[in-house]
Amino acid sequence: MLSNYLTLSVILFSIGIIGVLSRKNIIVIYMSIELLLNAVNISLVAISNTLQSNEGQVIVLMIIAIAAAEAALFMALFVVLFRNKRSLDADIFNLLGEKNAS
Amino acid sequence: MLNEVLFYILSALILVSALVLISARRPIDAALSFIVTLVSIAALFALQGSSFLFATQIIIYAGAILALILFIIMFLNIQDKNLPDEPHKKRDITFSTLAVLPFTVVLISLINKSPLVDQALPYDLFGGIKDIGSVIFNDYLLVFELISILLLVSLIGAVSLAKEDKDVK
Amino acid sequence: MFGLPAIIIILAVPVFTALFILLLGTTKYYSKKIGYRLTVITLLILVYLLSADLSTAHSTLLFKELFNEMLIYDTYSTLFILLFILGTFLSLSIGKSYIYKSDIFTPESFSLILFSLFGMILLAMTNELLSAFIALEIASLSVYVLVGIHHHSLRASEAFFKYLLLGSFAGSFYLLGLMLIYAQVGSTHFNQIAMFMYTHPISEIYLIVAGGLLLMITIMFKIAAMPFGAWVLDVYEGASLPITAFMAGTFKIAIFAIALRLFIGIFAQIKDFYDPLIVASAILTLVSGSLLAMVQTNIKRMLAASSIVHSGYLLIGLSSIGEIGTYATQSILFYLIAYFISATGALGILAYISNGVEKEISYDSLKGLGRQHPFLSAALTVFMLSLAGFPSTIGFLGKFYIFTSAIEAGYTLLALLGILAAFVSIYYYFKVISMLYFYEAEGEKVVYGEAYSFLFIMLSSVAVLWGGIGTGLVSFMPGANAITDITHLVIESLYIFSN
Amino acid sequence: MPLDILLNILLLAPFFSALFIAIIALAQPSSPKIIYSILAIFAPLLSAFLALILIYENYFNGIDIHSEIFTWLSVSAFHIPFSLHLDALSSLMLLFVAPVGFLIHVYALGYMKDDSSYPRFFALFNLFMFFMFLLVLGDNPIMMFLGWEGVGLSSYALISFYYEDAKNVAAGNKAFILNRIGDFGFLSALMLLFISIGEYGFSFSTIELHLHEMSAERINLIAALLFVGAMGKSAQFPLYVWLPDAMAGPTPVSALIHAATMVTAGVYMLARFSDLYAMSESVSLFIAYIGAFSALIAALMASREFDIKKILAYSTMSQLGYMFMAEGLGAYSFAIFHVFTHAFFKALLFMGAGAIIMSLHHEQDIRKMGGLRKSLPMLFIMMLIASLSISAIAPLNGFFSKDAIMGHIFASDAYIIYGIALFTSILTAFYMFRMLFFVFYGEEKIKAVAVSKTMIIPIALLAVGVILSGFLNVPSSFGGSESISIWLNLPDIREFLDHTTEFTLIGLNTFFIFVAIFVAYLKYGSATATREDVDKYRYQKIISNKFYIDELYHILFVKPLYKMSKGFDVYINHKIIDSSIHRTIALYYYIASYYRLIYDGSVRLYALFMVFGLSGLFIYLYFALEAM
Question: Which chain A residues contact residue B89 at CB under 8 A?
Fold first, then answer.
């Protein structure tokens, strides 16, 4: 049933959000964001299947491409951050916050 | 019926591996469990008969993107000592779950209230490469073109960010 | 087919120039001067081609068959595209001084600016959810990279990190929303979604309501509405000044291009649902923006915080749309125009003063500037007055329209809060003015270069005043009333049934 | 070019001239003077030229020119256009404002040539011209008010022009504050007017159409409040005390704009609202009495004054009194005609006085002057012409306008007013010739320096104007056609005297005037005259001290106000308002200093806020949908 797929999507999406919120390691955060996109994909394919139209699958394809585009930037980000601070801890990058503003 | 059972097995796999992903200490472990998630999702696609997406998911996601992640992890040579200390990980996970819970619960209840609830999936074989291709090039040509520019932009961005500058002056 | 050749050129030229600069950048013939000039000339050509289409209300589906009715070219999009191009042009022109002196502007950055412009242009024209998202992503990704292009600077890379991470996070909500809407409607075209909602009772469109909410989250993230806009201060501070001006002035308008189309077009019927949320967000945004702006010592951060407050004003306008329709929309459009000139000008002056060096500009460093550089200080004063909403500047008219539309819509208390926020804003904007005029200079008089940048600073400050007095004395220089006329046409064009 | 464009140019030329002068002076303080001179002179020349063209069109072709420049304010029903309108009344005003303004500019080139604040002066001066045009040409009371305030502002700046001296700044403040009192009346009247009939539109013509919809009481109230405004601007009793002090400005150019141009704004305003005043007889009569009283006390004070500029200032006030008498008794076109003639001879007198002051090294006390008849013969002749004109000797212009007013007063059976007017007229001749004899007769005390040509030529041109301009409105008793009165077409009350009475009155008046001149000659001009004017009697002392009005004001208003303000300052301002503002700011800072902590730069925290927002939205959604 379609609702099962949608529910699975939502739960997976929530897990992704939890990953983004609770982890400090930027690579894990990134993978959690990928999880969000995959959660959306699951449902889109299911919907496309129920509607018997291929549009949903095309959207999935496009989302995969978007994920790839973001992936490229994230890879660059890892390189830049690691080169600067030898660490991928999200919490040590707080030079700009109010704490240091004045 | 078999489809239903398979769906539940795959869902369980997806969710468990996702949970492992977000709680693993070392990124390499997370990446490996992410592969499980992605492959399970691909299997879910296959279950619904969309053969092309099954292949794409395996090739691009599990293959390319994850390979990239692993490559980066290796390339940066992240040691255990470079990993952040996360003494409050369990607490953080609990609190974030509480923060997200309203969203999850409300959205699931809405889904179950909507008329989509009892639509069954036909589980036919559909979404072959030919069908998808014709939809892309008939209906989604604009999006397809835009995607190419998006990829170009991210390519330029990634290169200009990650390169060691010799010529920037 | 109205203005069709021009719009094809407008779609194609930025991409081709971007690619050309990129390729040229790999050869020895490239120099920063060439890259800059190519970009600016491209923008000028685009302005020339487009401006004629602003005089009538028109609406055409672009390449209806080929693109499956996904692109719509109407006066609405014309106005926004023109604003994007002008905004980019103004940011670059005022920032010329900075760009020439600093060494972070590679050929890639020019082409990324053009790509970002291209994304925004499509965003204003798109008529479908997925292409809107991709257009938004093109613009956003370019801006992410532009923020972090100075990748040896810790600040820039940290800003890039935060923006990219939170931006992708927010973007996934959009996709979830898209999925929910697609699940219910079976299509992602705006028209079909609107049609679906028109033909179905409210109980059957729960998922669309939820999906719309998720789309709204992404929009609110991008316009820095609280609680989704916490990134703004850090990212604006980390980016180099011309890019900050570009983000604050131009990119923010682009988000409104899609937001207004969504709220006037698709979600008009269920906007009552969203109104309390927008109001709540507006209140939160105004309050936290004001609080943050007041305690800043770094002027760039102060402007970033105050840009949150301006988003709050715009949200007030957005919440009024449901009740009184076109007047509120007009007031938002007017406010956007007012804000874009003032903010670009103010940040541009900072770029001009900082002289291409990444240094913090605190209040103290402006001391005595009024005596050393009377014209520059006068221009900065004008921008500050306009941002604070003082009469006889364009910012005053903008606020005036926003607040009156809120009062007409029945949000009197909200309008009062807005006025209160404007009152508080006098505190931090006038602090700048007082630094300019009431203190003795501490350092030597610095000679700033690039008369070209200076010229555009002066021109935009004159525009701010001219727009505020609002006059048609000289027929070829449109004032405030001309802007009002244009906004009228723009809204009219949204209701033209396009074939 | 279309006429409305010309009208716009006429209005804007001085504005842009002022703007450019200011910009150049700021950007390049060392620019050569000639640039300013060209800029300063070109705009009024253009305006004067255009004014003549437009007035020609209006007079001969009967074209009313309307120019809607832009919509100033438009909030739902509230619609105020920024538009200009040139009809007969404003044409007549333009006819002297523009050319006289231009001549003053030329004169000022000579007068200010050694001043270090040359550009500031001309920027302000051109700004003044702009606002004066706006006042005269505005199509609705709001625009008129804008010009009204604008002339007040620029004249304030001009009075305090030499701000190094605290006395001048005080004079400027005095003028500004007293004008504000008047403005308060004006503004209240406008608000009342707007509330009553504003929904039909607010141009003068629509107001006129809907006047009858208001109750008589309201019309009276509006008329009275408007007159309060006119009192302030036109220096009538009791709001006149600023005018003599305003002579502190750059001698005598700013004095001239106050006395010859700006102060007539009140008269013009009453004429603009003549339909309203025609409906309000009691207020009109009150105006006539105020005018008569002001004319009388001003003439009395002038006869005991020794500062040449102040004498002229009082005479202005006195002449304005005549205009208000005329308006109060319903002779609007005569009043406006007197404004017109007055501008010429008063401008001539002020320019002459300025030239004298200049040639005597800034000496203003007439007791220290004397015998200038020989060294400055040209100036003497011209001053004589102007003095004869202000004393209403035929056939100079002052005769025609003043005589028309006097005749009208007599014909309206207002004999008390007529008595005052006649007495004032005699006094006028006396004090004018007193001044003339002091300055030009007797022995030369200070050696006069020759006057520059740029100053003499405008004076000579004005003298021609004084001689000729009276013939524009020759009354019917002299075989004229009263063409100006017909052109203006104001709601005049026409009272006709038979010719014998009229000629008797004129003869009587003229006879007394000659007697007064003769007395003045005996006292101050003849070889045996003592030329001393000490206060022998008590009444003289009272007059010399200006009836102690200033002192009275000081005790009645200034002191209590000062004490009250001081009390406010200490108790309310410092103790309550200031400290509460400081406390609010401190509280705000306190809150902000904690609030900012949550923006500590951690990206996860920012993401958490977003998720809070997300969950909040969905909780709301749940309840909202439940409630459906």
Answer: 22-23
Please state whether beta strands C71-74 and C59-62 pair in parallel, antiparallel, or not at all (unpaired): antiparallel
Query: Which residues of chain B have a CB within 8 Å of the CB of A23?
Result: 22, 86, 89, 92
Which of A 13-52 lie inside 8 A of B, CB atoms? 13-19, 21-25, 27-28, 30-32, 34-35, 38, 41-42, 45-46, 48-50, 52
How many residues appear in chain C?
499
Place of tokens 């000639």: D34
- Report the alpha-carbon distance of residue C74 to residue C62 in Å, rounded: 10
Structural domain that includes position A50: 2-91
Report CB contact under 8 Å: C138, B115.
no
Cβ-defined contact of A70 to C141 (cutoff 8 Å): yes
The domain spanning residue A35 has which CATH number?
A: 1.10.287.3510
Q: Do C103 and B168 touch (CB under 8 A)?
A: yes
Residues of C in contact with A18 (CB under 8 A): none
CATH no. of B2-79+88-127: 1.20.120.1200
pLDDT, tens only, D249-292:
776 566 666 666 788 888 888 888 888 888 888 888 888 888 88
DSSP D452: P
Instruction: Identify all chain C residues contacting D27, using CB atoms and an 8 Å cutoff.
Output: 374-375
> Which amino acid is it at D516?
A
Domain count, chain A: 1
Q: Give 3-state DSSP helix, strand, coil % of chain A, rounded to 5.
A: 85, 0, 15
Instruction: Return all residues near C22 (Cβ < 8 A) that are at least 6 apart.
Output: B156, C107, C108, C111
Residues 14-43, chain C, touching D (beta carbon < 8 A): none
- Structural domain of C74: 4-494
Q: Where are the domains of chain B?
A: 2-79+88-127
Residue C358 located in a structural domain: yes
Pick from C374, C452, C460: which is nearest to C97 by CA?
Answer: C452
* pLDDT confidence of residue C171: 93
Nearest residue of D to residue C217, measured between CA atoms:
D614
**pLDDT at A12 (0 to 100):** 94
Please check whether residue C253 is in contact with residue C340, taking contact to mean a CB–CB distance below 8 angstroms.
Answer: yes
A42 falls within a domain: yes
Residues in chain C whose Cβ is within 8 Å of chain A:
130, 133-134, 137, 141, 144-145, 148, 151-152, 154-155, 157-162, 164-165, 168-169, 172, 175-176, 178-179, 182-183, 186-188, 233-235, 237-238, 292, 295-298, 301
In this structure, is residue C22 part of a structural domain?
Answer: yes
- D286: tokens are 């009150």
pTM: 0.72
With bands split at pLDDT 50, 70 and 90, how would you rate the model's confidence at C100? confident
Would you say how long chain B is, in residues?
A: 169
Q: Which residue has the higher pLDDT, C333 or B168?
A: C333
- Indicate the number of domains in chain C: 1
Cα gap D387→D456, rounded to integer Å: 17
Q: What is the pLDDT of residues C202-248, one digit of tens each?
A: 778 888 888 999 999 999 999 988 888 888 988 998 888 889 999 98
Q: What pLDDT does residue C285 have?
A: 93
Question: What does the alpha-carbon distance between residue D231 and residue D251 come to, in Å, rounded to a whole number?
Answer: 24
CA dist., res. D342 & res. C156, Å (int)? 73
Q: Which of C382, C348, C105 is nearest to C246 (CA)?
A: C348
